[in-house]
Design brief:
The chain has one domain (11-120): Globins (Globin-like), CATH 1.10.490.10. Helix 2 runs antiparallel to helix 3, helix 2 packs across helix 6 (82-98) and helix 6 (82-98) packs antiparallel against helix 7 (103-120). It contains 7 helices and no strands. The protein is mostly helical. The protein has helices spanning 7-11, 13-28, 41-55, 61-66, 71-74, 82-98, 103-120. The longest helix is centred in the last third of the chain and has 18 residues, at 103-120. The protein binds protoporphyrin IX containing FE (HEM). The site of protoporphyrin IX containing FE has 21 residues, from helix 3, helix 5, helix 6 and helix 7.
Length: 123
Amino acid sequence: MELKISPYARIGEDNIKKLIHCFYEEIRNDTLLRPMYKEKLEEAEQRLYLFMVQYLGGPKHYNGMRGLPRLKIRHQPFAIDEDAKNSWLANMRTALDKSNINADDKEFLWDYFVKTANFMRNK
Ligand code: HEM
């Protein structure tokens, strides 16, 4: 039997946490996107962090806290056009470039973020 290790186990919780933290540090300085988020970025950071842990095969604390992700519906209140999508991805690219995640996993995560960000577009 082939032993499958989850991306969560491979990348590691600490790397995921740092990546998402770094991403929100970028959002903090993003004049286009910052106004879309609530005053306290910490809560948004915690949600994306728990979501990614779950998506990558780790504990399902996100579902316990927020219910099913339904990401497209949850993003409906925000005007996500091509510019907003590109800014979101640019922030994530910066965070990925600064992280210690190995090259293959960076590529795997980037592909997922690009695909999902395109799906979130609603304008
Ligand atoms: C395409 C550009 C995107 C924009 C402009 C955007 C913007 C936002 C905003 C404004 C929030 C609300 C944060 C708050 O509560 O203050 C949010 C929540 C969230 N976003 Fe995005 N987002 C984008 C793409 C993505 C992508 C690609 C993912 C997944 C990889 C994602 C995952 C999430 C998650 C998990 C939440 C929390 C949902 C919840 O439990 O309420 N977003 N996003």
